[in-house]
Amino acid sequence: MKNIVILFMLVSATLLALCPSPTFALGAIAVAENEGKGQPVFAIVIGHDSAEKASKAALDKCMLNGVGNCKVVLNFERCGSIATSNTSYGVGEGVDGKIARNRSLRNCGEDCSVAGQECEDY
Questions:
Q1: Which of 9, 11, 45, 13 shows the shortest CA–CA distance to 26?
Q2: Number of folded domains that form the chain
Q3: pLDDT per residue as tens digits for the range 92-117
Q4: For residue 60, what are the CA distances in angstroms to 47, 51, 70?
């Protein structure tokens, strides 16, 4: 009986070591503020394996819109959201879209609506 328990523990430990740990695709939001002149230009990306790659992809995508003053304002796992108005914006992240949206709306202020969101499929 003792040998069976030891064998079970060894097999379990081996299987655990072979299974990859759960990881999430990383995303980023980049924004170019319009200084009160309408809604900001933004880009959201997801599906990258590092925060650096996600940030670079978001900046590149934001700058494709013809603006050069883009900056990364959020790196996230799972879900990221941006809410905008004509005078402000807010970003949020969460384990699901509802949480990310609510956080972006709260961080934006009054008269805001969700302008974009990306979530990892999990």
A1: 45
A2: 1
A3: 999 999 999 999 999 998 999 999 99
A4: 15, 14, 9
